Amino acid sequence: MKKMMVFLLIVTLVIPIIGCTQKKEEVIRMGFVPMKDGDKLIESVEPLTEILSKELGVKVEGFTATNYVGVVEGLGSGQVDFGFIPPFAYVLANQESNAGVILTALNKSGEAKYRSQFLVRNDSGIESFSDVKGKKIAFVDPSSTSGYLFPGAHLIKEGIDIEKDIEYVYAGGHDKALQLLLNGDIDVATTFVDARDRYKEDFPDAMEKTKILGYTDYIPNISVTIRGDMDQELQEKIKNALLNLAKSEEGLELLKELFNMYGFEEATDTDYEIIRNTAEFMNVDLKEGN
């Protein structure tokens, strides 16, 4: 009898515990980094996560990182399920934790790619890349795809040794590189196309005082990257939810406002192979480049 009572007591205690465990809310975490206006951190993406929660039928929470390394590490540790990260960061995440890409963001022109540009002042006397030797150039950051990796590779292909033929500085932002150029502190600025339009409120005379010397190869846009151990069914659900989000007026406006994205198109790892090839050409270690 005593044994039966002990058994019933254990069952009574265990059942509520099992019930509580089953009721634990499932959460999908969306990671992101500052992508618009350089160093401005977006504080809240609640309107976006609320729409995605309805689409997926599961609560979606935002995971805010001060730089993309935080999202890359989150994808590897399982703290982040999917995130919006630059192409260089995707390749690093893929290398580190087998993270995968499902979508690429579209820009204002409806393209899933963009380029970097070389800007010079109209009165600089620089007419070709051969004139760049002996000049001072502003890159953005040593880990920037459009602000260093691709511009650096382009200069090398033009026969310029970036360690011997030029002097260079890291401006710390595309807008800051443009400012240095307009101030006369440098001779050439590397930015995305076209930073002069993006920052026209800050630099209203940039268009009339500068010109484009040339462009780099095309670069894949921001990626939607999922953690490496995510099952195929959830991958498809997240992909379809984001595609549907971009089709709605409210969702598209949020993407534009928060991330400067104008939609998505499906993507594969092959689309980002040019990042690996350019990093190898520039002798940049993906892990150290962050």
Structure description:
The longest helix is centred in the N-terminal third of the chain and has 21 residues. Strand 1, helix 2 and strand 2 form a beta-alpha-beta unit. The chain is built from eleven helices and 13 strands. The protein has a six-stranded mixed sheet with strand order 2-1-3-12-4-13, sandwiched between helices. It has a five-stranded mixed sheet with strand order 8-7-9-6-10, with helices on both faces. With 290 residues, the chain is an alpha/beta fold. The radius of gyration is 24 Å and the shape is globular. The chain folds into two domains: 130 residues, Periplasmic binding protein-like II (D-Maltodextrin-Binding Protein, domain 2), CATH 3.40.190.10; 102 residues, Periplasmic binding protein-like II (D-Maltodextrin-Binding Protein, domain 2, 3-Layer(aba) Sandwich).
